[in-house]
Amino acid sequence: ARRLAARLARLRGAAMKIGQLVSLQGEDILPPEFAQALAVLRAQAAPMPAQQVRRVLGREYGKGWERRFSAFDHEPLAAASIGQVHRATTPDGRDLALKIQYPGVARSIASDVDNVAALLRLFNLLPVDLDVAGIAAEAKRQLAQEADYLAEARFLERYAQLVADEPALLVPRVHRDLTTPRVMAMDYVEGEPLDALDRAPQARRDAVGALLERLLFRELFEFRVMQTDPNFANYLYLPASGRVALLDFGSTKRFGAAFVANYVRIT
Fold it and tell me: pTM for this one?
C-alpha cells in the first residue's frame, strides 16, 4: 500500500485523485493499514520542477511574467492532484497564493482515470466489493471541473457571499488580474492543518467541529451549493482568531431543489 501511494503521488493527476477517493472509504471496505498509507495523497503530491513552473507562467502570463511580482517563492507551499501552490507578492504589496496547474493534466483526464482504474483491478490492489467504476466516474467529474480555474474563481467568489454571515469562516479573495484558466491567484492565508486541533483544548475542538457541521447542513439545505471534495487539506485552522479558512472550490457542486427535498424527507 505504501509503494502504491508513493507511485500515485508521483503520477499526480488522475492517479492521485483516484488514490484520494479510495483513501476516504470506511474501514468496513478498506483495511486501516491501506487507508493510512493512501492518506498521504490527501496532503501532498510530487511537485513540478522550477523550470516547468516558469514555463507554465510564461504561457499563461506572457513574456516577462516575472515583472508582475516583486517576490515569487519557487518552493511550493503545497502540491495536489492537478496543481501546486506558490506564494508571491505583487509590486503593489498584495500577498498571494498562486495555484498553478500541471501542464497537460486537463487533456488526459478521461484516459488517465480509465488506465489507473484498469491497473488497480488487474493487480487486485483493492477489495473486490469496492465500486471502482463509481470512484473512477467521480474522479473524472472532479478533475474535469477542477481543471477550470476560472470556474473555480467564480465559485470562490459566490461562496464568500454565501458565508458572509459566518464570521468564523474565511474565504480568500480572488485576484482577477492574475487569474487565468490555468493559474488562480487568491489571498495568501497563514494557518495550520486541521490536524493541529488534536492538541487544542476540547472546547476549541468542539467549536470548530460544530462550525463545520453547521456549514455542511447549510451547504445542502440552504445554499444548495457544496464543496464536494472531502479533503482536510482544503481547510486551514487560524489559531490566533479561531477561524477556519476554506481554500479549495474546484469541486463545488450545485444541487437542484428536488435532490435536496429527498434529503429533507429522511431527516
Answer: 0.79
248-262 pLDDT per residue, tens: 888 888 999 999 999
* Nearest in space to 58 (alpha carbons), one of 77, 78, 72: 72
229 is catalytic: yes
Q: Is the pLDDT of residue 38 over 80?
A: no
Catalytic entry in 73, 129, 229, 248? 229
Do residues 56 and 62 make contact, with C-beta atoms less than 8 angstroms apart?
Answer: no
